């Protein structure tokens, strides 16, 4: 994608998401009553826009389906003699075509890590892209897709669009941080420093998250863009950030590393920001409730948040369960939430990639479907906010994770342990503190 097309692509996505939301914000600010269906329509439209622009356009090449059916298509296929030439490492049992792909069912004669580099080199020289995957029945498939002609390389353009979006998001998050403190920096620009603790902490959390993906992908030889930040002139000041993958993932180890690196990198900033900010936060006495947009948070809303609050506030936390978070703590709290949402084992989310790498394509897709359905149920019967995230996850992430080229090599024990740790973190962030544990944790219990 050339720079002009990339700019148009990102600009259209941002406009398609922001224009309806800005309109909604303006109507609410002038006191106009907004029906609930309009909010859900705006949310649905934004999800569809992000799904189209992020999922449909950036990568022209689609990963092949490992359960494809045979066809009689006369498109380019691999010569059977060429397939038989790899019988020293892969024993072909049957061969058929599916669209432009040649699918060979067979049996590996050596470990996937040893076989795939050889298969890749031989078929690349013959003009085919090589996938080594497993179908739903557990059969080994060698999938060959004709290599697309590569456009001539042009001099790389400066990432000015990334820089412009970064600066714009820094401005909107600074405005949002100041607004949460009751300061309108458009009217009083000299007080902009009020919004900086929130803005800088949140930008660092989002930036570290995306740069974790970026540098890990580069280590694995993958082509990837710098982060695109998404500014919004209301609410939290941003819709987060994202990067675009420009090449396929080589194997399940690379898929796992890229997936897990972002959430863990973001927590490197989120947890210290939360611990420091909690020391300057206010404990609300009694049963008063403070909304999220006013910086309010319940200590018992998350096991991990409760542990961090206990660590930062010590005995003071026995006086009340509701906190008015300092802007730095509010940014850290949002960092925990962003981490948890990304770790959900659903489709193209980071957690979906981790689950695919840990359990394989079939089990990973099943886990994604169950997790998405559970999120819908939680949204209907527990907290309506989960319903919003379920809708966003469905349109952006789907339920299926894109398989790597070599989807047969298992993870080593170190990565399995890190994956288990990541999902334990997800549980600790999303799980509220059970009633019985308030006293043992030494925090104020609102139920007695």
**How many strands in all?**
9
Distance between the termini: 60 Å
What is the CA-atom radius of gyration, in angstroms? Answer: 25 Å
Indicate the mean pLDDT. Answer: 81
Tell me the number of helical segments per DSSP (H or I, 4 or more residues long): 14
Residue windows where pLDDT falls under 50 for at least 5 positions: 1-6, 55-62
Protein architecture, described:
By secondary structure, the chain is of the alpha+beta class. It folds into 3 domains: 1-61; 80-146, General secretion pathway protein M, EpsM (Gyrase A, domain 2, 2-Layer Sandwich), CATH 3.30.1360.100; 200-212 and 251-448, no CATH class. Helices cover 52% and strands 11% of the residues. It has 14 helices and 9 strands. It has helices at residues 3-29, 36-56, 80-84, 112-125, 160-180, 196-219, 252-278, 303-313, 327-343, 350-359, 361-381, 384-397, 413-430, 438-441; strands at 90-98, 101-108, 128-134, 140-146, 228-231, 238-242, 282-284, 296-298, 322-324. The strands form 3 sheets. It has a 4-stranded antiparallel beta sheet. Strand 1 and strand 2 (101-108) form a beta hairpin. Helix 9 crosses helix 13 (413-430). It is elongated, with a radius of gyration of 25 Å.
